Amino acid sequence: GLDAVLAVLDESTLQGERPLLDRAAEDEAVQEAERIASAIAEAARSKTGCPAIIATLPPCIQLTSADIATPGSIARFRLRVNMMLGDGAAEGRWLMWDQAALASRIGIERWFDPIAYHSAKVPFNVELCPLAADNIASLLAAMTGKSARALVLDLDNTLWGGVIGDDGLAGIRIGQNSAEGEAFIAFQNFVLGLRERGVVLAVCSKNTDAVAREPFRRHPDMLLKEEHIAVFQANWDDKATNIRAIAEKLGL
Predict the structure, then answer these.
(1) CATH 3.40.50.1000 in the chain, residues?
(2) N or C: which end of the chain has fewer CB within 10 A?
(3) What is the CATH number of domain 150-250?
């Protein structure tokens, strides 16, 4: 049976009347887009028993830097529709595939193929199908509980610059005193963001346990603390063995 129904809409489905500088008309066009998304989600549930996955609209090539501030412009309309789709996904009305984020990462001029679209209504460059499929598969994995649940971190030259066992607490590079130190702070912020999303954090380091824990306990610029780490595995065993031990302890 089906796991989900994916709807990749283009702007022609959602046009409505939205003359430039007419905010009321733009509001109505966004409301009409929401009605279409709701109808798709309801049809998916009633006809297949599966949730609908609705793709965000990819960004467009903007004519001016003021497009986002201009009611009725294509760029502004797509941005508002994507926010509406995000709100609906947050409310559980449908699932969302963020095509816009992927297209932005690739580059809109490479993502969109106007010849393929007008000849066969292909929503993006066919050469990018494997990339899009992989991106959608990640969403399906999350739906079925098969997405990554834990992040296992090394320490030296991963959470800080240098080797704690050789350089000592004062010698490792982390913090606002260098570009390298700022980069490690930024990475720790990213890791903490993953933890807030439910990703379990673990440490796997070839090191003496007390030495490995010292930056977490005593370095003033460390954002990650011991309480953020579910399993702290620091010893001289090989990392494959330690990662297996971490997996067994977490039981995910």
Answers:
(1) 150-250
(2) N
(3) 3.40.50.1000
